[in-house]
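Please check the following.

. . .
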Amino acid sequence: MSDPTRPGQPHIVAIANQKGGVGKTTTAINLAAALVECGARVLVVDLDPQGNASTGLGLPPDARKKTSYDLLLEEVPLEDVIQPTNFDRLLLCPANADLSSADIELVANEKRSFLLHDALRQTAMDSFDLDVILIDCPPALSLLTINALVASQSVLVPLQSEFFALEGLSQLMLTIREVRQSANPALRIEGVLLTMYDGRNRLSQQVEADARATLGDVVFHTVIPRNVRLSEAPSFALPVTEYDSASKGSEAYRALAKEFLARHPIRERMVQP
């Protein structure tokens, strides 16, 4: 159970959108890396059966001995699942294809919506001394995504800067409202993040204008551009901040990290050399 008297509990964020290809995994990897550059200790929880966040952070499939599947369905201890990455202060709870069957297996479990919530609030979590946990959700409003929403304090929604982008948000917002009413009253929208933005393209400009007119301050000031380096970085198993530190993609995710930390400052001791 969660103990509110325990100090230094991390801020938990689900990165969710039921539409695929909008930049969820790209955001999980690169926001995590940018937060680490700012001195934060970050855990990425890969909850997508494709395991792309795990690959993008340099963990090959054969190194994923225990995964988020084991954490949720086998009650494997946190310390046996969470792995270091090649980047200081950045940890990973990896995923693999085992998660593909999780929805079916979860249905019969009475606590099916609270398994990740409880796992991330074990007292063993204190030893990792985390500031932020980012959950990379699958591209579906499945029981895995519900677990992420119940476990989180907030939801970050990547929104592709393309036609019909806003229309896909309605079902996600409805799901968030249902979770708030039934299982997690404190859940809120962290922000909507415009991704794959091309400032030379009138359509991108129109999507941004529509999003800001419709959602107001819910939309992050930062937008993530279409950027070749962002697209290339995963094939080298690196965040873009490591692959090309000076790229526009790196600059954008650093700006997002600063915007995020303005709302959720990390503990002073974490930025000491």
Q: What stands out?
A: The longest helix spans residues 248-263. The chain has one domain: 11-262. Residues 64 and 237 are 15 Å apart (CA to CA).
